[in-house]
């Protein structure tokens, strides 16, 4: 689906979206932070394929092979650690697409793989600034836009099963992801009466560029596969189904949830 500029046609009402949408997202307008690669890119492609207008927000929003470069989404330069950058990205997206009623906060970074207490203060600051504060920086203005528009909305936070596990070599990452669980539940309650649903998706061990060094270690991938009931590592496309549901009218009474998509890893 090629992205077009906002036509100025009358927007569909929230009631029309609720009663007629199902899992089809025609008429919706989505932002996917971190949507240029990995899980974010897979989600951006799936939203576009379901008929949604998509804007990818990233520091490099249109690298080769990305949804924006493929013409499936508009490219908006954005650094989620900068509130000024986020404000500019939102203004640009509204100018292009008219409004935003779906937000997927997928931007994040990995940890430095150092066992505590050998964690560099700068690594802690960078991970928390991106993975936790960066989500706050995006959700706050986008949710205010949804409230002002008065048509409800969907906010999907992409977190990690690290939110519920001890990660002695990724303390900042685990702390940030655990913080997102509390953030999701609290914001969901705060926005529920505005018909804005807020949920978190916690992927398990997914093969992405961010994890390539981890899986390259001797026996690491084998150990994780053995520990996962599905007996395989996940792929970015394994995360898109739950996100399509959470972005659609079908999830209108589903909010404040933290959903693991991990092949059974967290319950085994």
Task: Characterise the protein shown here.
With 268 residues, this protein is an alpha/beta fold. The chain has a single domain, classed as Rossmann fold, CATH 3.40.50. Helices cover 39% and strands 14% of the residues. The protein has 8 helices and 7 strands. A 7-stranded parallel sheet has the order 3-2-1-4-5-6-7, with helices on both faces. β4 (102-105), α4 and β5 (153-158) form a beta-alpha-beta unit. The N and C termini lie far apart (40 Å). Residues 1-22 have low confidence and may be disordered.
Structural class: alpha/beta
Helical segment tally? 8
Terminal residue distance: 40 Å
Radius of gyration from CA coordinates: 18 Å
Number of strands: 7
Low-confidence stretches: 1-22
In the CATH hierarchy, the third-tier topology is known as Rossmann fold
Subunit organisation of the chains: single chain
Assigned CATH class: Alpha Beta
Output the helix-strand order: HEHEEHEHEHEHHHE
Largest sheet: 7 strands, parallel
Strand order within the widest beta sheet: 3-2-1-4-5-6-7
Q: What is the share of helical residues?
A: 25-40%
Averaging pLDDT over every residue, what do you get?
91
List the helices and strands and how they pair.
Layout: H1 14-20, E1 29-33, H2 38-49, E2 53-58, E3 74-77, H3 83-97, E4 102-105, H4 121-149, E5 153-158, H5 171-191, E6 196-203, H6 212-216, H7 220-227, H8 240-247, E7 258-261
Parallel strand pairs: 1-2, 1-4, 2-3, 4-5, 5-6, 6-7
Helix pairs in contact: 2-8, 3-4, 4-5
